[in-house]
Specification:
Oligomer: single chain
Distance between the termini: 58 Å
Shape: globular
CATH topology of the largest domain: Nucleotidyltransferase, domain 5
Number of strands: 30
CATH superfamily of the largest domain: ATPase, nucleotide binding domain
CATH architecture of the largest domain: 2-Layer Sandwich
Helix content: 25-40%
Number of domains: 3
Number of helices: 12
Largest sheet: 6 strands, mixed
CATH class of the largest domain: Alpha Beta
Structural class: alpha+beta
């Protein structure tokens, strides 16, 4: 089996596949004696780049040549870049190095890796998703699709112990991101008339800049100030090597505090050994605001489905090992909280989903008749993998609202507006089509711009400046310009020429198509991050809403 699921994490990454019995298994990282690979890259020199635990061990001594937490930067408009030995790396390229390490891990054990599904936070927008897919392709992987991390975790749970008609809340606190998703699990009939388990995402929320790293930062500051107090210093007096030493011991201290009431940390400060004792109660007090943040997201997500009763709560992500998290969630959902493979569930679910896609593409999904060897023993046997992947159907939601920027010509003043074709929370793949028209007679071309945003309104007017020119971003509704499609029109095109515009959104991105219905000429693109579009704000290059 050359199909794999990858959990590309902020702090640790994991890769899984289905074994010969159709059960998901994580590929062991024998080099680090772990099921995970640290998402850390060390640029030792121009000829050697190290990824994983060995890279992490250099944070203390060569921190300025180590990159970590890059998932928080991928696909962001303000993302930073990193330069080592005269070469500049983007977050996409560094993520590709981590994915290459996972690929090499599989190949070093004599296995092939071809098709993959990579997980992303449910709250990721198009730019982050496109950048993640690009990183996979840069690593030499064929990315079948992306899947939201909570959905993958629910799929893993469903494969192991499914209970009919269960509504599950997935609380996913990873190293750098937080997602909360409400999932409905039920039985349904597929097109072949076979009973399958359906996973339907009802609501999602979260923050792609909230995760275990924030707890680490609080603990780092606590240890740093304790060292200063013990030695009569200020934070400015602490040398870079000492800071790196503290940072390298934060994760170990946090793990100890998940099992014990206190943990000791020993730090060398200016040649003097300083011992700091951290109480779990103090750690919980200093991070209580972060716990509250996650629970606020839980509340706001539940408000989207007010009539739904939660049957089970799944704790996913390494940060859910912290007792403060378990206690907070248990207090809100007494007796309903479960924790299954919090570090591996996402990768295992992605592996199941990848195999589902391959079976679907190959047309090998067994029919109801094909699964009954008693009735027709001559039929080709159905593999364990096919039996597993044929049992599920997944319906996920759009993470943002999407639509084109067009001219509204009603009234005395023309106004550039964003029409939301597809809203947050619609079932994916989501498709919407609408007909527009050139603004003027004899228009040479149309520059059709696509936007994403966080609004549920049908129409927005925030994406223009005081002169009416479209803007790339708008903080109020988090409007972002994703890209544009240039539609060339033949000479003497009248302004009443219908231009049919279609948006299609799936887990991997947005596909936009424009059709000149007079000539049947089709213009289409699969939109990716476009940070430097040649913005031409001339009104004559716009589409208008109505033919009047």
């Amino acid at each position: 089996m050359s199909t794999y699921g990858i959990d590309l994490g902020t702090t640790y990454s994991c890769i899984a596949r289905l074994d010969s019995n159709g059960n998901p298994e994580v590929i062991r990282n024998n080099e680090d004696d772990s099921n995970m690979v640290a998402s850390v890259v060390f640029f030792e020199n121009e000829n050697n780049v190290v990824v994983g635990q060995a890279a992490k061990e250099n944070i203390e001594t060569d921190g300025d040549r180590v990159v970590q937490f890059v998932k928080r930067e991928i696909g962001k408009r303000d993302m930073r870049t990193y330069t080592f030995d005269g070469k500049t790396y983007t977050p996409v390229e560094i993520s590709a190095l981590i994915l290459t390490r996972l690929k090499n891990l599989v190949e070093s054990q004599g296995n092939e890796i071809e098709d993959v599904v990579i997980t992303v936070p449910a709250y990721f927008g198009l730019e982050e998703r496109s950048a993640t897919k690009q990183a996979g392709e840069l690593a030499g992987l064929h990315v079948l699709s992306l899947i939201n991390e909570p959905t993958a975790a629910a799929l893993s749970y469903c494969a192991r112990q499914f209970q009919e008609d269960r509504t599950i809340l997935v609380y996913d606190l990873g190293g750098g991101t937080f997602d909360v998703t409400v999932v409905k699990m039920s039985m349904t009939r597929n097109e072949a008339g076979k009973d399958v388990q359906k996973i339907n995402v009802l609501a999602t929320g979260g923050d792609d800049r909230l995760g275990g790293k924030d707890w680490d930062d609080k603990l780092f500051d606590h240890i740093l100030h304790a060292c200063c107090d013990e030695n009569g210093l200020t934070p400015e007096d602490i040398e870079a090597e000492t800071r790196q030493d503290i940072r390298s011991k934060v994760e170990e201290a946090k793990r100890k505090l998940s099992k014990k009431q206190s943990a000791k940390v020993r730090i060398d400060v200016n040649g003097s050994r300083t011992e700091i004792t951290i109480k779990r109660s103090d750690f919980e007090a200093m991070t209580s605001d972060k716990v509250a943040q996650t629970m606020n997201f839980v509340d706001s997500t539940l408000q989207k489905v007010p009539d739904v009763e939660i049957d089970t709560v799944l704790l996913v992500g390494g940060s859910t090992y912290m007792p403060m998290i378990q206690n907070a969630v248990e207090a809100k959902f007494p007796g309903k909280v479960q924790q299954h493979d919090p570090d591996q569930a996402v990768a295992k679910g992605a592996a199941i989903y990848a195999s589902m896609l391959v079976v679907e593409e190959s047309g090998d999904t067994p029919s109801a008749d094909e699964t009954s060897s008693d009735e027709n023993p001559a039929e080709k046997p159905v593999s364990h993998t096919e039996q597993l992947t044929a049992k599920f159907t997944v319906e996920d939601q759009t993470p943002r609202s999407f639509g084109p920027g067009v001219m509204d010509t009603k009234g005395a003043k023309h106004q550039y507006v964003l029409e939301n074709f597809i809203k947050i929370g619609e079932k994916m793949p989501a498709v919407f089509t609408k007909t527009y028209y050139p603004l003027e007679d004899n228009q040479e071309r149309v520059r059709l711009r696509a936007f994403e945003n966080m609004s549920l309104e049908d129409t927005l007017i925030p994406c223009v400046d005081e002169d009416g020119n479209p803007q790339a971003t708008d903080p109020a509704n988090n409007v972002k310009l994703l890209g544009e499609l240039v539609v060339n029109l033949p000479p003497e095109t009248p302004r009443d020429t219908p231009i049919k515009v279609t948006f299609k959104v799936d887990a991997s991105g947005v596909h936009v198509e424009a059709v000149n219905t007079r000539t049947n000429e089709i213009f289409e693109t699969f939109l990716r991050t476009e940070s430097d579009i040649d913005v031409d704000n001339s009104a004559v290059h716009q589409l208008r809403i109505s033919a009047d």
